[in-house]
Amino acid sequence: MPFNYQQDFHTVNFRQHPEHYRVGKGEQGVLLVQPYKGEILPHWRFRTPSVARESSEQIYALFEAYLKANDFVGADMARKFLQMGFTRARRYANHRGGKKYDGPVPDDKKGQSGSHGRAELPRSPEDPEKAEAAAIFKRKWDEAKQHPDYLRQRAEFEARYGK
């Protein structure tokens, strides 16, 4: 099932109500789903390769703890933060200042992925430090999405609550 952006994310506790969670595509909901956003976001950093390494290791440790607790929603959110570490570091590697699209995000599209009809800005010369930070997150993200317990719990979650 697609990610549902119409939910009241301010009141739903997804640990208590995993039936309301949808995996969606990519990073959908990464900055909305509580209490996981609050638990993972403080560890998410990618400014330099050493910061990215520490951050990705902390988030991966949370990922493993969620799996051990049989908390698929938490594990999936940690996976999304690892993915977002990769994509945001790549954005900064390609676009000085991190701004990829021209103009503001329309109010009704805030929190959602995509250009929303905005033009992509030209790329800057690649920032090798941000590119290395992105590669660090990419390795951890790949490891997470292929983890056998993650794959098993995802299949069980989707069988129970739908795709």
From TrEMBL:
One Pfam family linked to the record: DUF4385
InterPro entries: DUF4385
Residues covered by region (Disordered): 95-140
Recorded superkingdom: Bacteria
Biased composition regions of type Basic and acidic residues, renumbered to the chain: 99-132
Protein's name according to its UniProt entry: Cytoplasmic protein
